[in-house]
Design brief:
Length: about 290
Amino acid sequence: MSKRRAVLLLRERFRSSFFAHHRDRRTSIHRPRAVDSPHCSSAATYSSSRSRASPRPAMEAALAHNGLWSSGASEKNKAMVEQLQRYGVIKSAKVAEVMEAIDRGLFVPPGASPYFDSPMAIGYNATISAPHMHAACLELLEDHLQPGMRALDVGSGTGYLTACFALMVGPEGRAVGVEHIPELVASSTENIKKSAADPQLKDGSLSIHIADGREGWPELAPYDCIHVGAAAPQIPEALIEQLKPGGRMVIPVGTVFQELKVVDKKLDGTVSVRDETSVRYVPLTSKDAQLHSN
């Protein structure tokens, strides 16, 4: 089974839970809603001909069938990673190693079920994305997350993916998270301190900053890879400028209909863009628009 097919299959299985959850700026799926701010695009729609009803029992049955619902496997980070490997979402041994090392349970609110393949609310109209989306993005960016490279995570949220980036680039590289909600920057820093990425937070090779992600983080540019966890109407020019020649960016683009774009900057500075898959993200927006969204 191809990685693209596996991701789509997982989305179809757990689609109802995605609609109930994704109302944030992260790599996520959410309910359509109007956005009043002129800086925001409207929410997008994941392309599907199926009903938008939320059959929770059916979703739970699917999770149980796949070993992610029982009190045994569902509570273990390793079991979550192994499930994604069985589906073909994770093919890289390095991605599997990093996702096992960074325990997702440290990056979700108390009382949540961190190992379900579902996004989860983290407050401030934000979420942490589903594990299969994190895995898919790590797979797409792996060649640009080699030791010594620089990575930028726009909309770093709980810090989970930034921590994964840090382990992949190592202490000789730089992993930079940008988040415009100060409370999430503070809590994500505490999350990372409890994780396997703490040594890199202490030595400065991993850092989280309060900033508007649409502007990137030019102080440490250029970056070998950039991940963006929210949908922009078009690719921000500032992020293209901060992408290193030979580097790659993964970003959802669109308003009503969105595609996860893979942006490659060639060594001569020219840029190529391809569509990876249809997605449903909330807008890449301002802090005020996010906090006051319905």
